[in-house]
């Protein structure tokens, strides 16, 4: 995709935010509502429109169908058991924590760095969070929040704020989720019978890699002379 193909940087921010919201949803413990959303083909249409054909498009096309058998009470219980085995139970085969992949241990220096990134945006983990702050779902939710702020800045015509949030997004992808999510996905897909989570993580890994390049392109475009209505962004990236 090239930026001339999109309606506006605000449209792009909205589509990217929704993609991270879906990724975060899929990495949370399963509920009946979650299964219904992820089994709906319409849930993935916006992301498929955003991304070029390829591995991501193929995984997304199959994901709704892969989730469909888990509808209903028995299906939900089966998915919850699978989730525990893969991500959360004792001896989980693919724990979804950044520091494990970046440092080989839980609650490492990168976990502290994640908290600092949240703090720069004026955010903190919720008091009732019963997990670590570098859980993949929490990091995806953080990117979603940054993107909604970027969207608000575009809509308000605040180019400096848009540049700040773009910079924060790119920094977080480069230092955190974008660095370790591919290893997380690869680890899961080496195990037997990952179910729909194998597709989810393949799609997630392809999207995160694509989105990192896309964020770079948006920031470069927005900071360049002659970008029409977007103009130049004051400051460029976040400090």
Overall description:
This protein is an all-alpha fold and 239 residues long. 66% of the residues lie in helices and 0% in strands. The chain is built from eleven helices and no strands. It has helices at residues 9-26, 32-39, 45-50, 55-67, 72-88, 98-103, 109-120, 136-156, 159-175, 177-188, 196-223. α1 (9-26) runs antiparallel to α11 (196-223) and α9 (159-175) crosses α11. The protein starts with 8 loop residues before the first helix and ends in a 16-residue tail after the last helix.
Summed up, what is this model?
The protein is mostly helical.
How is this fold's topology laid out?
Elements: H1 9-26, H2 32-39, H3 45-50, H4 55-67, H5 72-88, H6 98-103, H7 109-120, H8 136-156, H9 159-175, H10 177-188, H11 196-223
Helix pairs in contact: 1-8, 1-11, 2-4, 4-11, 8-9, 9-11, 10-11
Outline type = globular
How many beta-strand segments? 0
**Main beta sheet strand tally, sense and closure:** none
Strand portion, in percent? Answer: under 5%
Whole-angstrom Rg: 18 Å
Low-confidence stretches: 1-6, 228-239
Q: In terms of structural class, how would the helical and strand content be classed?
A: mainly alpha
**Straight-line N-to-C gap:** 28 Å
Assembly state of the chains shown: single chain
Helical proportion?
Answer: 55-70%
Instruction: State the helix count.
Output: 11
Give the SSE order as H and E letters.
HHHHHHHHHHH
| Average pLDDT rating | 85
List keywords for this structure.
239 residues; mainly alpha; disordered N terminus; disordered C terminus
């Amino acid at each position: 995709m090239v930026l001339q193909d999109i309606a506006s940087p605000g449209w792009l921010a909205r589509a990217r935010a929704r993609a991270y919201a879906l990724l975060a949803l899929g990495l949370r413990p399963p509920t009946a509502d979650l299964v219904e959303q992820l089994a709906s083909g319409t849930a993935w249409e916006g992301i498929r429109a955003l991304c070029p054909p390829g591995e991501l498009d193929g995984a997304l096309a199959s994901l709704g169908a892969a989730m469909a058998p888990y509808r209903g009470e028995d299906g939900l219980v089966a998915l919850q058991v699978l989730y525990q085995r893969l991500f959360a139970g004792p001896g989980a085969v693919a724990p979804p924590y950044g520091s494990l992949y970046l440092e080989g241990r839980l609650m490492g220096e990168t976990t502290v760095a994640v908290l600092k990134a949240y703090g720069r945006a004026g955010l903190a983990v919720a008091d009732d969070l019963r997990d670590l702050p570098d859980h993949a779902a929490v990091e995806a939710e953080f990117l979603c929040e940054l993107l909604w702020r970027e969207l608000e800045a575009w809509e308000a015509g605040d180019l400096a704020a848009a540049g700040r949030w773009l910079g924060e997004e790119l920094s977080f992808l480069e230092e955190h989720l974008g660095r370790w999510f591919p290893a997380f996905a690869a680890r899961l897909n080496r195990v037997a019978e990952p179910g729909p989570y194998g597709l989810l993580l393949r799609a997630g890994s392809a999207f995160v890699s694509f989105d990192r390049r896309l964020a770079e392109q948006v920031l470069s475009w927005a900071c360049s002379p002659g970008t029409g209505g977007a103009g130049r962004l004051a400051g460029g990236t976040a400090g």
